[in-house]
Design brief:
The complex is a heterodimer. By secondary structure, chain A is mainly alpha-helical. In chain A, 74% of the residues lie in helices and 0% in strands. The longest helix of chain A is centred in the middle third of the chain and has 33 residues, at 91-123. Chain A is flat and about 85 Å long. The relative contact order of chain B is 0.15. Classes of the chains: A mainly alpha, B mainly alpha. Chain A: It is a multi-pass membrane protein. Chain A: This is ABC transporter permease.
Chain lengths: 315, 297
């Protein structure tokens, strides 16, 4: 019963966020100047008043605003994001087609960033000071590096100078390497900064002394006892992390001329394809909520104190 | 739902929990060398922004058809681009444009955050909930996506990009202002002022507002780096400053077409961008560290 209520509360909060983001997008897009009909047919096309009315009617633009809003929410519940102004297809379909490359990019970057961050954290939390100093400097530079420039530098060096990797998207794993690195390196740098702080803190804890006194080896102390504590603060960054991934996808996909959600987002903004923009906003809110839930589960797996009570009172 | 704004979070201040051994009164008074170096670099950048003529050897749009795509050398330190323009001079002239977008956006965002946060803290429960849930919803969107959304309304260009970045930074800063205002509101001196019969608007202006500005200023400094970066990103994506303006992000877009023949066109504007964000971040974190240390002691 308690579990059911918790799930219900989470679901309600999640719906609230998605509803809020969708409403914000709807309201903001009402402020966009210019006639949406121009976005549909292009600003140079000659449209008769009759055709104009027909187009406005097709997209429901001839109805009063509250009715448009309610209709929009109603369609949203059914997973219908409306029709794109420019792609001649439903928004949901357009997004679904572009989802794969972006998911590949995001998942790849997440894995690379996590593995890299873990390795560097453990390697630089020893007793020696200089690895930490060196890594700290590299982290600071990476955190300050905009992803579009990082992508350009990697492209110049590995694709044009050395010729190891393809310049633009040619399909296959090789063309994924540089985009994934571009997205992953700054994320990894932030994760290392937070995790090392946590690990060093944990290593000073009394339980580490106990573990050492029990005769555990140093690697065992670190991996089994201390590392958990380092992972927790990193997991609280979920919101920042999701935003970086999605915003980064817009930039990285444009640097490397890859197809994907980020590319289509920029097209939609440039072409004033308002239904498509609304769809992207809603999608990113859903992703945000999903990642938050996933991270909460992950945090409970790492930290037993965060697991929900099972309803059995402790003796 | 209390996600941080879309800037890299600073690690917890080291000194609060772990006093460094051997830190004497002298080292405590003098900022660390990295901070001093950052301050020096930032001073140089500010000089370049206000008086580009001090450093630049040519105008930002002076073309030279006889010397296009020249590699960096003694004549052109950072080389020349496809139109024979001196990349070093363009980078110097660009300092003004790139810093201006970030600084103006942070300033406007902070001003918006003050109004937003104070209104939330001082209005009733319903107003507070409405304003802060709006901030939450906006923070759920990636910063860049929010900026793109705002650019739909404002249109392309430098002004539009500045407004977009400002709106993107405001919700996170507003949360800080509100939290601080709630703390200050319960403090003795505010109660005393209210008790003495000082009118409410005057209490807000004279007592609550000044005491919320400190934390806001510190966080705004940390945000400044991210704002400069986002502004340049918008220009890189073709939505902010437009060529031939020597804005660093716009220069990167131009240079990306020549990566194979002339890597220097895209390298140097980016390097300047990194240096700027780096110095601002170092200074911002130092200020954050200091205020938190002072609050802890």
């Amino acid at each position: 019963m308690i579990l059911l209520r918790r799930v219900g509360a989470r679901l309600g909060a999640a719906l609230l966020v998605v509803w809020g983001a969708a409403t914000c997008a709807f309201l903001v897009l009402q402020l966009v100047p210019g006639d949406p009909v121009h976005a549909v047919v292009g600003s140079n096309a000659l449209v008769s008043a009759e055709q104009r009315e027909e187009i406005r009617h097709h997209y429901g633009l001839d109805r009063p605003l509250p009715v448009q809003y309610l209709a929009y929410l109603g369609r949203l519940l059914g997973g219908d994001l409306g029709d794109s102004y420019q792609l001649q297809q439903p928004v949901a379909q357009a997004l679904a087609q572009q989802l794969r490359p972006t998911v590949e990019l995001a998942v790849g970057a997440t894995l690379v960033a996590a593995v890299l961050a873990l390795a560097v954290t453990v390697a630089t939390s020893g007793r020696a000071h200089w690895p930490r100093r060196l890594s700290g400097a590299v982290e600071l530079v990476l955190v300050s590096t905009p992803s579009f420039w990082l992508g350009i530098v990697l492209l110049t060096f590995f694709s044009f100078r050395l010729g190891w990797l393809p310049v633009s998207d040619a399909g296959g794993v090789a063309s994924l390497v540089l985009p994934v690195l571009t997205l992953a390196l700054p994320i990894a740098a932030v994760l290392v900064q937070v995790m090392r702080e946590g690990l060093l803190d944990a290593l000073r804890g009394p339980f580490v002394l106990t573990a050492r006194a029990r005769g555990l080896t140093e690697p065992a102390v670190r991996s089994r006892h201390a590392l958990r504590h380092a992972a927790l603060p990193a997991l609280t960054l979920a919101g920042w992390f999701t935003g970086t991934l999605l915003g980064g996808a817009v930039v990285v996909e444009n640097v490397f001329a890859r197809p994907g959600i980020g590319r289509i987002t920029l097209q939609a903004v440039s072409g004033r394809d308002l239904p498509l923009v609304q769809g992207v906003v809603t999608l990113s809110a859903v992703v945000f909520v999903a990642v938050s839930a996933l991270v909460e589960l992950l945090a409970a797996a790492v930290d037993p104190r965060l697991r929900p009570a099972t309803g059995v009172p402790a003796a | 739902m209390t996600s941080p704004p879309s800037l890299p979070p600073a690690p917890a201040p080291r000194s609060v929990r772990r006093p460094r051994r051997g830190a004497t009164a002298r080292t405590a008074a003098l900022p660390p060398p990295t901070v001093l170096l950052s301050a020096l670099v930032l001073t140089l950048f500010l000089a370049a922004a206000f008086a580009p003529g001090l450093f630049a050897t040519a105008g930002a749009t002076d073309t030279d058809p006889l010397h296009t795509l020249q590699a960096p050398g003694s004549a052109h330190w950072f080389g020349t681009d496809q139109l024979g323009r001196d990349v070093f001079s363009r980078v110097v002239h660009g300092t003004r444009h790139s810093l201006a977008i970030g600084a103006a956006a942070t300033g406007a965002g902070a001003a918006l955050a003050v109004v937003w946060g104070l209104a939330a803290a001082l209005s009733g429960r319903l107003g507070d909930a409405l304003l802060m849930r709006t901030a939450d919803a906006l923070l759920a969107l990636p910063g860049l996506l929010l900026a793109l959304l705002v650019m739909l309304v404002t249109g392309k260009g430098v002004t539009g990009a500045t407004i977009a970045v400002a709106v993107g930074t405001a919700p996170g800063l507003a949360q800080v202002v509100r939290t601080q205002a709630l703390v200050v509101r319960r403090s003795g001196y505010v109660e005393a002022a209210v008790g003495l019969g000082v009118p409410r608007p005057l209490v807000v202006l004279r007592h609550v507002l000044p005491n919320t500005l400190g934390p806001l200023l510190v966080l705004a400094t940390v945000t400044l780096g991210a704002s400069i970066s986002t502004g340049a990103a918008l220009s890189y994506l073709g939505l902010g400053a437009q060529p031939p303006t020597p804005e660093w992000g716009a220069m990167l877009t131009e240079g990306q077409g020549f990566l194979e023949q002339a890597w220097w066109i895209a390298l140097f504007p980016g390097l300047m961008l990194v240096a700027t964000v780096l110095t601002v971040t170092v200074l911002g974190r130092w200020a954050q560290d200091r205020t938190e240390r002072r609050a802890a002691s």
